[in-house]
Structures are given as C-alpha cells and as structure tokens.
Specification:
By secondary structure, the chain is an all-alpha fold. It contains 9 helices and no strands.
C-alpha cells in the first residue's frame, strides 16, 4: 500500500493504518532500531513506540515522506532506549560515531544562537553537494548506523573504500560548515 493511502487510514483513525505501516516499513524500522540498540527486544519496542507516536501525531501532521517521518521517530526512540539502558556504559559503536561527527558538527551548547533547524538545513544542502554514492554511504553510516562492513557489502566496495569515503566526507563537511560561518 502506498504512503498516501496509509496516511488516509491514519486520518480516518482506522487501526489498519498500523498494520499497513508495519507491512510496508516494519522490517526497515526494525533494522534501523536494531543497528542502534543491538537488541531484538529493544528494537521491537522502539518500532512499537514509533507506531504509537505516529498514531498520536498523524493527524494533525501529514508527512510528505512517511518512511522518513517514521524513521526519525524510530531512531529517536532507539537512541533514548540506548541512553536509558546504558547511561554509564555507552554502546561503543554509537560513541564512536558520535566522536567522529563531533569533529565536524558544532556543539549546540556552545553555539546557542545556532538552532537545530538551521543546522539541519545546512546539512541537507551539504548532502546535496555529494555524489549520490557518497551521500548514501554517509547517510547509511550516520543516520541508519550501519556498520562499515554492511555498507561495503550493500554497495559492493571494500571496507577501506567506505572508511576513506567517510573520512573525506567528514573533512568536506568540516570545511563546508566553516564556510557557512559555523564554528566547529
């Protein structure tokens, strides 16, 4: 079932909206959450929480891209679950990714005048400057939290090529942010 029909079901408050959402996007949402929490039960809980949040927010929201809307919600639930379960002992993969991105994304607490939406706009603009292949490698790593090995297998390139692309893209991002007047 396509997104517009699923959204119509949400607006009609028809519970089949959840069933169709799960049939269409459930597996992808589970993989996204599992890449973050690394636990099937926590991933399932994050997906279930995503469906509840979607039920509560559609309507009034009417997302243009349903999967992107759901993925953002799911990712946030998974990250909150990770924080809650491992407050003192962080997941090494997420900590590693966070440290990589801290090198080129500013600390929002230092730059209070820079709002998250503005940074999001700048990042979106930056991503459009990349080749489609480099953009997808970057997004798979830092949004979907795919491993380097998973990305290499997905795109049929070596792990070292993935790491090189990511490093070069982070360097480009750092330069781009400085050009935009953002202190890194």
């Amino acid at each position: 079932m396509d997104d517009s029909k699923i959204i119509e079901l949400f607006f009609a408050r028809n519970e089949d909206a959840i069933k169709h959402t799960d049939n269409t996007y459930g597996r992808r949402l589970f993989v996204l959450a599992d890449n973050i929490v690394r636990n099937d039960q926590d991933a399932e809980e994050s997906v279930s929480d995503t469906y509840m949040k979607a039920w509560d927010t559609i309507p009034p929201k009417k997302p243009v891209h349903l999967f992107a809307y759901l993925a953002k919600i799911c990712r946030n639930f998974a990250l909150k679950k990770l924080d809650w379960k491992a407050a003192a002992k962080r997941n090494a993969e997420v900590v590693s990714l966070t440290q990589e991105m801290e090198l080129c994304i500013p600390d929002m607490s230092r730059d209070a005048e820079l709002e998250g939406k503005e940074l999001g706009r700048i990042l979106s603009t930056f991503l459009r400057t990349l080749t489609p292949e480099n953009r997808m490698v970057f997004v798979r790593r830092y949004w979907y939290v795919d491993t380097v090995a998973d990305i290499a297998a997905r795109y049929g390139i070596s792990e070292s090529a993935v790491m090189t692309r990511l490093s070069r893209t982070r360097d480009k991002l750092r330069v781009y942010l400085k050009k935009e007047g953002i202190r890194v």
